[in-house]
Amino acid sequence: MKKPKHTESAFSKRYIECSASEDEATSSTPFHEVFGFLIMLLLTLVGVHFQGLNMSPLKTHYAAMVLFIIAVFIYSIAFAGIKVGPHNTSYLPIFNFICLTSGIIACELLVYILIPTFWLLIINLCATLVEVLRRWYKQISARLIDDLVLDTSSHLLQKIHQSASKAFAGFTLTHCSTEKEEDNGIQNAEIV
Fold this sequence. Notes:
8 helices; elongated; membrane; Ca-permeable_cation_channel; transmembrane helix
């Protein structure tokens, strides 16, 4: 029996596509576990904070709590879409972006309830700076190396060359006599 030249069937193509999209969906699971842990931790801190004050966060921060519930609801729907929905790789980046955005908003709202607005701004600026440095590390380091190291070293070599040429400018190369001629001159001087 001859084997067919085309061994890849439509079923195997579909299986490969599904495997790739499942890998992509499960690769973002640790990312979602971190958000789940962070949201639970912040909710616990909010509960402990307001239990000591004998107040409800729904009364003092009603808008923030409603927005938090909406963000968590959106996050849950997008995460369910990633886990349960048909694994089509075209929509997974969109759902991952929705999960990321709504997860960040949910965490920000809980932190807003816990700390003053000024410190929240400082934390966000630091987080933004860290992310910018993380994304642009290679470009920044290459630019620093080009600007600082290469330009500084070439400038330093030019300064050394200028200093050396000034130092040796007064010296001229003249005909140097051999040792025998010098010895003969010393002997002649002793005779006289």
